Amino acid sequence: MKIALTYNLKKTDSSKPADYFSEFDSEGTINAIASAMRNKGHSVELVDAESSLLLNYFKKTRIDLVFNIAEGKSGKFRESQVPALLEYLKIPYTGSNTFSLALALNKAFTKRLLNAENIPTPAFQIFKTGKEELDGSLRFPLIAKPNCEGSAKGIALKNVVNAKPQLYKVIHELKKIYSQDILVEEFIEGRELTVGILENGKIKVLPILEIDFSGCATSGEYFYSWRMKEYQGDEKLGLLPKFYCPASLDKETEEKVREVAVKTHLAVGCFDISRTDIRLDKDNIPYVLEINPLPGLDPNESNFPLMAYAAGMKYDDLIEAILSGAAERKELN
Questions:
Q1: pLDDT tens for residues 182-232?
Q2: Are residues 203 and 297 in the same domain?
Q3: Residue 188 per-residue DSSP state
């Protein structure tokens, strides 16, 4: 097949916040995905999603299928921008559709859907102005996050608060930087898990990954903050999480976690691939924090490939499985 790989390239810009380009992919990841597809016999062209010639490229170039990892340009529907263009031109692509991508990037909308489907998720409140009265039913500690960001953008240790004055200070700081609604939710103390799903004809749940933050005492960061995602493994910063895959869970808890991840994948309407982040509380209740229909695919650092490796897959096979899922849907349409 002739494949176009659509992407946003990670870059640096001192005029932007430090986490501004965090959702974008490195040159190494882009090349690894392209290499994996070429190793499977496909012809691959790299297409920068930020190019002003993007529309012309797809109008003039015959492509069998697009492998999409693009995050889009800007706005709260940005992850849908490239898929929307491809749908308009009737070009098939990997991954979820425009609706699911837009929904998943909006944490509050996703959580309302999870509540409607009886899928556990932390209680929350949206702050549009930062002046709203705090819902008295919410229990501290609370964590504040930008509502429409990924890759832990805007999430820091100071975002976990135990009192109203701290909370409103964080809300106002986040609104100033990110210019969007702020999600405040109960912070679930417990084990951090993530669950990968591959959908290639049928749903395959990959081995559950546990991220153990007990070795991060010097940083005090016991959850996935932006610093943790960006600098994990940095001993000087005290960001030394350990990864266990499969996670050490009893059979009953493992089944509950898997079930919740599958229900979330289906509720949001994901295709081909998703990764659901979960906190397991002291009563072994799996609380869904969010779902990512565009999980990172760095072969060395991203969580999704780690889970695929634990399932006995090689990186090239993982990329081919994602591609095959989309190709199969193309044939059915």
A1: 999 999 999 999 999 999 778 999 999 999 999 998 898 999 999 999 998
A2: yes
A3: -
For residue 120, give both structure tokens. 């556990």
- Measure the CA–CA gap between 51 and 54, rounded to whole angstroms: 5
Taken in order 280, 284, 287, 291, is the CA torsion positive or negative?
positive
Q: In what order do the strands lie in the sheet with 2-7?
A: 43-48, 2-7, 65-68
Rounded CA-CA distance 19/152 in Å is 9
Residue type, 315: Y
For 260-272, the pLDDT digits (tens) are: 999 999 999 999 9
Supply the CATH number for residue 90's domain.
3.40.50.20
Bridge partner list, 279: 192, 287
Percent over 90 (pLDDT), the chain: 88
- Tell me, what amino acid is at 179? S
152 shares its domain with 210: no
Q: Is 15 exposed, middle or buried (0-12, 13-18, 19+ CB in 10 A)?
A: exposed
What is the count of structural domains for the chain?
3
Q: What is the pLDDT of residue 16?
A: 85
Predicted TM-score (pTM) of this structure: 0.95
Does 35 have pLDDT greater than 70? yes
Distance separating alpha carbons of residues 252 and 229, to the nearest angstrom: 30
Nearest Cα to 33, choosing from 22, 21, 23, 45?
45
Residue 333, pLDDT score: 55
* Residue 104 domain-assigned (yes or no): no
**Pair 163, 204 in one domain:** no
